[in-house]
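Recap from last week: sequence in, structure out.
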Amino acid sequence: MAFSINGQLQKAAEEKRNREYEVSLVEALKNSYRDIQEIEIDSSGYSVPPGDWSCFIKLTFSDGEVVQYGLGHSLSDTINRSGVVNTAESEILSSHFGSTGGNVRVIFSDGKESVE
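Predicted structure tokens:
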């Protein structure tokens, strides 16, 4: 029973950490790119908790362009333009450098949705 409770506590703590990183990432992306309409976060997690945090994201811009890529993030990042992208994706991202001031629809890795 104690193992089950400890496992549940550990899982809850990891979910809380993931959400903290995901919310921080959303703010950093909004500070990095203009005209973001939607951010979908998938496969977030740590290499070895509490090691490096990374995820895959899908950015949808108001002009209909969509980019999907993997990236790392730190809670201290206020701008995040890092990521593993090809040339075409890099050109799309570069064309959207700026900031998004309005609300953005966010789909977190746990499937929950929010407007940030």
